[in-house]
Structures are given as structure tokens and as C-alpha cells.
Design a protein that fits this description.
The chain is of the alpha/beta class. Helix content is about 30%, strand content about 20%. Helix 6 (about 160-180) packs parallel to helix 7 (about 195-210), helix 8 (about 225-240) runs parallel beside helix 9 and helix 16 runs antiparallel to helix 17. The longest helix is centred in the first third of the chain and has 17 residues, at about 160-180. The structure holds zinc ion.
Amino acid sequence: MVDTIIRNGTVVDGTGAPAVALDVLIEGGNIVSLEPSTAVAADRAWDAQGKVVCPGFIDIHSHSDFSLLANRSAESAIAQGVTTLVTGNCGHGPAPTKRWDLTKRNTIGFSETWNVEPSWSSFGEYLEALFSPGLSVNVAPLVPHGTVRLAVMGHDARPAETDELEQMKDLVAEAMSAGARGLSSGLEYSPGCYSDEDELAALASVAARAGGVYASHIRNRGDDFDKAVNEAINICRRAGLPGQLSHLAPRPYAPKGMFDRVLEAIDRAREREGLRLGMDTFPDAWGPGPLVSLLPTSVYEGEASEVRARLQSSSVRSECREYFDEPTNYLLRLGGFDSLYLSYSKAYPELVGKSFAEIFEHMKLDPVEGIFELLLAEGADFYNVLLRHIYATESDLDHLLSQSTCSLGSDGVTAATSGPLSSFTMNRSSYGYTARFLREYVVERGMFSVEEAVRKMTSLPARSAAVEERGTLEPNMAADVVVFDLSSINDECTDAKPRALPSGIEMVMVNGEIVFEGGPTQNRPGRLVGR
Ligand SMILES: [Zn+2]
């Protein structure tokens, strides 16, 4: 007798092995065994005839650190079969904090209007706030380097002094002992961009001693893509820990041949030195970003009142016009404002989905005035105005996805179809990256087998994020399980309508409890992963 049996399904176990018809026996939140047509009885049986049964998807690149506090059922994640979120990516996140007014703007998917008051200062206190009173999903948190640096040095654009580095090491050590799975960095953003390799290697060493990983949004994916990858590899080599290279597609303007050279360098480090290096992407040629990323960092650093004053200053406006005229900015270099789209603005919902070229014309403002208006209108939430930009060419995206060490993630923020998060969208992958990957790359294009696609969303990200007890359907693993219908699976989001739950996800289980079955069940079995 066991708690639950999922009967008659086609088991895709997450390892990449061929699918087999098996029953999955679950007891006490763990998988007990997988057997053909078992005679064992169960308190509850779930019939998965004609459906795929696989491990819960592990979103290796999530920015849901704050949104989970505003919607504990993590609806947009569980509805697409995601059972574990790796959070704290790109050096961004809400803890540890010494000055909340600065930290909140280093938190992707933060909003003043979600009625969540920070009760924490340390990383451990944040995790306590996150897990009481419970979550539907598991979380494997990374401690964000940008947030750590901000707590010690604010936005100071200089190398760390010895005592500052010691303070940062203490914050990373505290986070690791509280349950962080590693350190993340975001080196195209302030304040991460002010750090050097020595600082990052020293902090990664602290994470390494606690068995952590280093995940990096590297410094450059354009002209200096190779240098930026080398820096990440050096950090892993010096600190002695596995690395995860986040959303690794080259910018479309990267020099020809650069991507292959970068992939070769990663392979060499892996083969010759035995370094463990993974990479990831979302399955979309469009990427998300904050609108402020179009501006010089000096414009949006500091307290909200200081930023607002700058956005109203005519000298800052002229400075930005010059900055726009000779674009060195990584987003401005992608092309004109007709290839950048507004993806979130609370103040201007009617402009969401339009290109910035259309928006400026509609507003009868020049680009600098238009951007400043969008930011000023958002009040204290100005950091939360989001855009959509060309992330990769289709062929580079395919090339990245086809790497055997490339995991899938959302680069998103969990949202919901009702409540305070219902008007928020980071990107359409927040709602449907798993379904889109299965529909587009398995069913329609046949680029991957279902077994390989599932591996890239389960065991591969689990190993890359040091999540040991999840990612495969095997005895003694946690019972995070998804049942889906491959014939009807579909991401129902479009760029124009980026908020819709996918179809084809029949049932989702976290630690042996059903969290989604036609809708969220409101169960809260999620755990801090690794504890
Ligand atoms: Zn990033």
C-alpha cells in the first residue's frame, strides 16, 4: 500500500532514456518504485493512459524571488509543469539587504503595488519569509552578487577595498549556510559591472566551500563575448566550482564565428580541465529587459528621489541624447526603436505590445523624452517598466539549444491570472516556455526527441544547479511529477497576448502533493531545495 500511484502512463524519466510504460509509486513525498502494471494498492490512483509522465520541470533561470511572496501558488510556473525555480539569477534579488530603497530596484519583478513589506535583512531571514506560510513550488535560491555588493558598497563604481570584500564574503557565507545553492552575477548591470574577476573569484570561493555553483549573466555577449566567457571560466577555475552560463546566445551583432569560438573554449575547459560548465536559454528569439537598461547607468542609480530629479533635468536629457546618437549600449546596438517593444507599463497599459518607434510617435516625443515619460509615469516602480528586445537570431538560438549541456529556463517572473500579479508580464516564457519547447522543437520541428527535451528541462538543470534529489523519476527521488499530453501541449501566449496558461498540462505534483489539476489546488508543499 502506497499513498499514490500514477498508472498506465508513458514514463520519460528525465535521464534521456527511452520512454517506457510504467506505473509510478509514491509514498511520503518520494518515489518508491516504477513498475509495469503494479498490483500494489494505493490511497489515490491517477490514470495517465496515453499521457507522458515525467519529472517536474526545473526552471534554471527564474527571477521570481519577489513575486513568490505576492502569489504563493506560483500559478504561471505550476501551470506549465515547473516544480522547482532556481531564483536569484543575474546578480539580482531582494536579499541580503541593508538599504531596501536600493535593494528593491536590484530585484527583477519588484513592485510597490504588490503589498509585500520586506521583513528581512539577511538572506536567511528572506528565506524564512519566503517559506512561511508556504509555497506551491520548490525553490533553489542563488545569492545575487549585485545585491551583496549593493549592501556593502552601494553603486560605487570602483573595485572593492579589502574590508569591503571581507564584508561581502561574510554575506555570501551567511546566504550559503541559510540554503543558497550558489552565487549569481549580472555583469552587464549596475552594480555588478563595477566588479572585477578577483572580487568575483573571491566570492565564488566562499560559495564553493559550501558546495555551491556560480551562475553568470556574463559581461558581454557582443564584441567581447570570448573575453567574457573566459572571465567566467577563470572564476570557476580559481574558485573550484561548477559554472552556469546564463542565456548564452550571442547578440546578433557579435562578430561572425565568435559563437563557435566561445563554445569551443567551453568544451576545451570541460574536456582538458574537467571543469563542470553548463549553459541555458529560453526558447524564444525575444528577450526581456528593464527599460532603464537603455540609459547610462549613472541616470538610474541611487535613491528613487535622486533618479526622479535626474529624469526631470534638462542637462541629463541632453547627455542621454548624445548617448543615443553614438550607441555603445548593448540594447541600443540591436537596431532602431522599431525593433524594441514595450512589454510592461502599469501607467501606460494601452502602449504595451507596441514598438518604441510607434510609442514615441504616438506621444509626439523624442526617444529620450518618451523613455523619461514612461519611467516618470511609473512613480517609484520605474525600474519595473519592461521591454522586449531581439535576444538571438533563430539560427544562433537553435545552435545554443542543440548543445547537449544547454538547459531550458524562463528568464521570467511568476505571475497569475488573478490577483495583484495578473497585470504583470516579464515575458511570455513566464507562462509557457516548457509547452512551447515541447510543441515547437519536439512535435513541430522534430529537432529533439521528447526524452531529450525533457532531459533539458529536468535532470540537466538539476545537476547544473546542484539540485541532487530532483530531476529524474527514480526510487528515492522527490515526487515532483508532471503528466502532460504531447498531442495537445501548447503555449497559448503570443507576443500580443503574453498572459495565458498553456494547454496539455494535465497534472503537476510537488513532493507527492498535487498542486495543479485543471487549475491551482492551493496546496503548498514546496520546499527549500537541498534541505
Ligand atoms: Zn540575465
